[in-house]
Specification:
Length: 102
């Protein structure tokens, strides 16, 4: 798998954040918000078992959040793939969707 520029998730997040207002708290510390990136922890393989994730989110053009808190131990269920026309080449991952950026 190879990365080809920004993913769709990142493009959508960038579009949202460009239109957001900056909130200033008078007397408060000027800290940048901590953004949680997407993390893959485990991959569901053909034998219906889980293996440690061999890919990083940046390897895919599309990442879909299927279910938040799918399992309490592993977290969110995500589907990652490169070509919307060939989705059968995608992978199911358990991990942390975070704020949906790579």
């Amino acid at each position: 798998m190879k990365g080809r520029g920004q993913s769709t998730v990142l493009k959508r997040f960038s579009a949202l954040t460009n239109n957001m207002s900056k909130v200033i708290i008078i007397g408060g510390a000027d800290e940048a918000p901590k953004i949680k990136k997407i993390q893959f922890k485990e991959c569901l393989v053909e034998s219906n078992s889980l293996e440690p994730a061999a890919f990083q989110p940046c390897h895919f053009q599309y990442i879909e959040l299927i279910c938040k808190n799918y399992t309490l131990s592993a977290g969110d269920l995500m589907f990652a793939y490169d070509d919307p026309e060939v989705r059968e080449d995608g992978f199911l991952f358990l991990g942390d969707f975070g704020d949906g950026i790579i």
